[in-house]
Amino acid sequence: MIEVGDKAFHIRSGHEVEITKVGAVTYGIYDFFTEQSWTVPQEDIRPSPQQKPFESVDRSGMDCLSFSELRAASETRNSENAGGESDWTLADWGNALAGETGELCNFIKKSRRNLPNDPSLEDLKQNMANELADIVTYADLIANKLGVDLGKAVREKFNVVSKRRNSQVTL
Questions:
Q1: pLDDT digits (tens, 9 = 90+) for 16-34
Q2: Would the pTM of this model clear 0.70, i.e. be above it?
Q3: Which CATH superfamily is domain 67-164 in?
Q4: Which of 7, 48, 52, 95 could form a disulfide with 1 if both were Cys (CB 3.0 to 4.6 A apart)?
């Protein structure tokens, strides 16, 4: 729930909401599911008591790609059968995910061991970013095959772990 002045916006679990600073003291709220948007003054926004204020997170320079955007683009690309994966099983997608995870781990290993010919962490960051992107994409492809809303699953699991850690931070 996001409270704005006298009005409370109840955001359903699974809805992806983007809150962005649009002025010196003004925020925009956009619900991707309902396609509703609001502009509100900063002083009128209060997160629900169990959540930390969203202002504490610096999102400057971040691309706020949503899981729904990723899913739509993946479904469209896969419908083109450009990569020949249309007949892949869950095991095939799982192996692809494991392969990308292994590639990321290899870059992490190289950044950590510091041998004379190994690239620096800074030199490896883009490679790691590419592998992380592949991992998220494959995870969503698997979720799609299973009929799982990955955004909802991440939110629910994050909140379970927060509760287990006695943290007030929830999604």
A1: 556 666 666 666 666 666 6
A2: no
A3: MazG-like (1.10.287.1080)
A4: 48
